[in-house]
Amino acid sequence: MKKWVALCLGILLLFSAGECVHAAMKRSAGVDRAKITIDDSEAYSEREIRAAMKVVKRRFKWNYRSTLLSLSYNDEKSSAAAAEWAARYGADEAIVLYSDFVTDDDERMYGTGLEPGYTYRGWSWVLVRSHGGRWRLKNWGYG
């Protein structure tokens, strides 16, 4: 009897691990295929912009049941708001990125504040840093 219970628990554990791996792979695929667009910038190098994008992609991957369609840096739009965002968060610099994504059509979306099966366009991500340090995500959404 003990062997049977141990076998059943082992099978259940393997199934759970497989589901975790599958979910992680799905989240990764939902981010890694996004179209990336980076305008030329007077303020930041491409490497600095990509570092900010990496922070957004990491957050998106683990906190959204969605597929990231695009992630972009628009120099004109970002620069217009950067000083205000930096001042708001007491930082030296701010960068604003924009994304489009589609949420999963899944009942688990209810209660997240996002509409299931909806495409969000122009979703902004505000990141700040001081003294050339690492980007920190501070705000996101519309507006």
Describe it.
The protein has 143 residues and is an alpha+beta fold. It has one domain. The protein has a five-stranded mixed beta sheet, sandwiched between helices. Helix 1 packs antiparallel against helix 2. It starts with a helix and ends with a strand.
- Calculate Rg over CA atoms: 19 Å
Q: What structural class do helix, strand and pairing data support?
A: alpha+beta
Got a strand count? 5
Q: Provide the residue-averaged pLDDT.
A: 82
Strand content: 25-35%
Q: Could you name the ranges where pLDDT drops below 50 across 5 or more consecutive residues?
A: 17-29
Q: Indicate the multimeric state.
A: single chain
Biggest sheet, spatial arrangement of strands = 1-2-3-4-5
Number of helices: 3
Question: Could you give a short account of the major beta sheet?
Answer: 5 strands, mixed
In whole angstroms, how far apart are the ends? Answer: 61 Å
Principal-axis shape equals globular
Q: How many independent structural domains?
A: 1
Question: What level of helicity do the residues show?
Answer: 40-55%
* Order of helix and strand elements from N to C terminus: HEHEHEEE
